[in-house]
Specification:
single chain, Alpha-D-Glucose-1,6-Bisphosphate, Chain A, domain 4, 7-stranded antiparallel beta sheet, Polyketide_cyclase/dehydratase, SRPBCC family protein, START-like_dom_sf
Length: 145
Protein backbone atom coordinates (compact mmCIF):
# COMPACT_ATOMS: atom_id res chain seq x y z
CA UNK A 1 0.00 0.00 0.00
CA UNK A 2 1.08 3.56 -0.69
CA UNK A 3 -0.57 6.65 0.84
CA UNK A 4 -0.21 10.41 1.01
CA UNK A 5 -2.12 13.13 2.83
CA UNK A 6 -2.18 16.90 2.44
CA UNK A 7 -4.23 19.38 4.44
CA UNK A 8 -4.67 23.13 4.68
CA UNK A 9 -6.82 25.47 6.74
CA UNK A 10 -8.64 28.70 5.93
CA UNK A 11 -11.33 31.00 7.24
CA UNK A 12 -14.15 29.51 5.18
CA UNK A 13 -17.29 27.60 5.98
CA UNK A 14 -17.52 23.86 5.30
CA UNK A 15 -20.52 24.59 3.10
CA UNK A 16 -18.51 26.96 0.87
CA UNK A 17 -15.99 24.18 0.23
CA UNK A 18 -18.73 21.62 -0.26
CA UNK A 19 -20.51 23.75 -2.85
CA UNK A 20 -17.37 23.72 -5.02
CA UNK A 21 -16.84 19.97 -4.60
CA UNK A 22 -20.46 19.15 -5.38
CA UNK A 23 -20.15 20.86 -8.79
CA UNK A 24 -17.90 18.49 -10.78
CA UNK A 25 -18.44 20.38 -14.03
CA UNK A 26 -16.84 23.40 -12.32
CA UNK A 27 -13.82 21.59 -10.83
CA UNK A 28 -11.60 22.96 -13.59
CA UNK A 29 -12.04 26.49 -12.16
CA UNK A 30 -9.90 25.60 -9.13
CA UNK A 31 -8.21 22.36 -10.26
CA UNK A 32 -6.40 22.76 -13.58
CA UNK A 33 -5.55 19.05 -13.60
CA UNK A 34 -9.22 18.05 -13.60
CA UNK A 35 -9.66 19.13 -17.20
CA UNK A 36 -12.98 17.98 -18.60
CA UNK A 37 -15.36 16.11 -16.27
CA UNK A 38 -18.31 14.05 -17.48
CA UNK A 39 -20.80 12.67 -14.94
CA UNK A 40 -22.97 9.58 -15.41
CA UNK A 41 -25.40 10.82 -12.78
CA UNK A 42 -25.66 13.13 -9.77
CA UNK A 43 -22.84 13.87 -7.34
CA UNK A 44 -23.75 10.86 -5.18
CA UNK A 45 -22.38 7.52 -4.05
CA UNK A 46 -22.42 5.02 -6.91
CA UNK A 47 -22.10 7.60 -9.69
CA UNK A 48 -19.32 7.01 -12.19
CA UNK A 49 -17.51 9.90 -13.82
CA UNK A 50 -14.76 10.49 -16.34
CA UNK A 51 -12.05 13.08 -15.84
CA UNK A 52 -9.83 13.96 -18.80
CA UNK A 53 -6.82 15.95 -17.56
CA UNK A 54 -5.28 18.29 -20.16
CA UNK A 55 -3.13 16.30 -22.58
CA UNK A 56 -3.91 12.95 -20.94
CA UNK A 57 -6.18 9.97 -21.47
CA UNK A 58 -9.59 9.89 -19.75
CA UNK A 59 -9.70 8.43 -16.24
CA UNK A 60 -12.83 6.53 -15.10
CA UNK A 61 -13.74 6.80 -11.42
CA UNK A 62 -16.61 6.03 -9.11
CA UNK A 63 -17.87 8.12 -6.22
CA UNK A 64 -18.17 5.65 -3.36
CA UNK A 65 -19.20 7.92 -0.50
CA UNK A 66 -20.82 11.33 -0.11
CA UNK A 67 -21.50 13.03 3.21
CA UNK A 68 -22.67 16.60 2.47
CA UNK A 69 -20.54 19.35 4.00
CA UNK A 70 -18.12 16.70 5.35
CA UNK A 71 -16.59 14.26 2.87
CA UNK A 72 -16.61 12.41 -0.40
CA UNK A 73 -14.52 9.56 -1.75
CA UNK A 74 -13.62 8.54 -5.30
CA UNK A 75 -12.12 5.26 -6.47
CA UNK A 76 -10.25 4.48 -9.67
CA UNK A 77 -9.86 0.76 -10.36
CA UNK A 78 -7.04 -0.28 -12.67
CA UNK A 79 -5.54 -3.70 -13.36
CA UNK A 80 -3.82 -4.73 -10.10
CA UNK A 81 -4.34 -1.25 -8.56
CA UNK A 82 -7.06 0.61 -6.70
CA UNK A 83 -6.56 4.36 -6.19
CA UNK A 84 -8.81 5.82 -3.50
CA UNK A 85 -8.93 9.53 -2.75
CA UNK A 86 -10.67 10.86 0.35
CA UNK A 87 -11.75 14.52 0.33
CA UNK A 88 -12.49 15.63 3.89
CA UNK A 89 -13.75 18.79 5.56
CA UNK A 90 -13.04 19.33 9.24
CA UNK A 91 -14.72 22.32 10.85
CA UNK A 92 -12.21 23.69 13.32
CA UNK A 93 -14.67 26.15 14.77
CA UNK A 94 -15.45 29.79 15.09
CA UNK A 95 -12.58 32.22 15.57
CA UNK A 96 -12.19 35.89 16.26
CA UNK A 97 -14.69 38.44 17.42
CA UNK A 98 -16.55 38.27 14.13
CA UNK A 99 -17.18 34.55 14.63
CA UNK A 100 -15.57 33.53 11.34
CA UNK A 101 -15.55 29.82 10.61
CA UNK A 102 -12.18 28.08 10.23
CA UNK A 103 -12.11 24.91 8.17
CA UNK A 104 -9.49 22.27 7.42
CA UNK A 105 -9.54 20.48 4.06
CA UNK A 106 -7.79 17.12 3.78
CA UNK A 107 -6.95 15.19 0.61
CA UNK A 108 -5.75 11.63 1.25
CA UNK A 109 -4.86 9.14 -1.48
CA UNK A 110 -4.25 5.44 -0.98
CA UNK A 111 -2.98 3.03 -3.61
CA UNK A 112 -3.73 -0.62 -2.91
CA UNK A 113 -3.77 -3.85 -4.89
CA UNK A 114 -1.27 -6.41 -6.15
CA UNK A 115 0.99 -3.85 -7.85
CA UNK A 116 0.72 -1.13 -5.16
CA UNK A 117 4.13 -1.74 -3.59
CA UNK A 118 5.82 -1.74 -6.98
CA UNK A 119 3.93 1.06 -8.74
CA UNK A 120 2.68 3.19 -5.83
CA UNK A 121 5.97 4.94 -4.98
CA UNK A 122 6.26 6.21 -8.57
CA UNK A 123 2.60 6.75 -9.48
CA UNK A 124 1.44 8.17 -6.14
CA UNK A 125 3.62 11.29 -6.16
CA UNK A 126 2.50 12.00 -9.73
CA UNK A 127 -1.15 11.81 -8.71
CA UNK A 128 -0.72 13.89 -5.56
CA UNK A 129 1.87 16.44 -6.73
CA UNK A 130 -0.73 19.16 -7.25
CA UNK A 131 -2.63 18.66 -3.96
CA UNK A 132 -1.11 21.77 -2.30
CA UNK A 133 -2.00 23.95 -5.30
CA UNK A 134 -5.47 22.41 -5.75
CA UNK A 135 -6.44 22.70 -2.08
CA UNK A 136 -5.04 26.23 -1.97
CA UNK A 137 -7.13 27.34 -4.94
CA UNK A 138 -10.18 25.54 -3.59
CA UNK A 139 -9.93 27.36 -0.27
CA UNK A 140 -9.22 30.68 -1.98
CA UNK A 141 -12.34 30.37 -4.12
CA UNK A 142 -14.42 29.16 -1.15
CA UNK A 143 -13.32 32.22 0.84
CA UNK A 144 -14.82 34.46 -1.84
CA UNK A 145 -18.20 32.71 -1.66
Amino acid sequence: MWNYEFSAEAEVTPHAVWTLWADPLGWHTWNEGAGKVEMDGPFAAGTRFTMTPPGQDPIRMTITEVVPDQAWVDVCELPELVITTHHLIEEIGLIGEAGDSRTKVVYRTEITGEAADEVGPELGPQICADFPEVVGKLLELAARA
